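Hey, quick one: can you model this chain's 3D structure?
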Amino acid sequence: MTVSSRRRMHWITEVLLVVVIALVVAALIRAFVAQVFYIPSGSMEDTLHEDDWIVVSKLTTTLGTVERGDVVVFADPGDWLDVTASSNPVRQALEFVGIAPDSAEGDLVKRVIGVGGDSVRCCNSDGQVEVNGIPLDENYVYPGDEPSDAPAGCSGEFEITVPNGYLWVMGDHRSVSSDSRCQEDLLRFVPDDLVRGRAVAVVWPFANWDLLSRPESFDSIS
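Sure thing. Here's the predicted structure for all 222 residues.
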């Protein structure tokens, strides 16, 4: 092997090593720190829009707890949606290393309204959702929707107690969101351990860029 060939081989080896390290780091970040998802539906409008890309923090589940008001991505707790994940191997590989955003079609994106032990009902005499007797000022609900609006087959009126270790979730676009209101028995609730993480920002398209904070109306609930 000539000197030129050895140099070329050395350069190729270095490039491959850098690529492998970068892919490993990206996969570790995706698994433990943050992950990008894209939104396939309008169930969280106007907070999230169809085809938005969002950053989801994994630290919420690894170092902290999910709180009322958080927008979370979670695994389907029991055939809430009749969808399947992408079977394209290239797409799956790009999602795994974090180059492509994960489709939320295999997961769901909703807002946490109640956590384990909470009493949640809709609605009081003013048409508001209450958590532990405290009415929510839900200024995030889709314009024109009422807090009690629900798709066909789902209940807009309810009064439940969230079991420990579970969450009660609802979409911001109440009239089209398939969520806890649309299920029965224990399947109405999302197990804590199915939460992928908390949505912290919309990053694409640039016109929709926004940081996602917890609404102040949840601060007074204990």
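One thing worth noting: Helices lie at 3-32, 59-62, 89-96.
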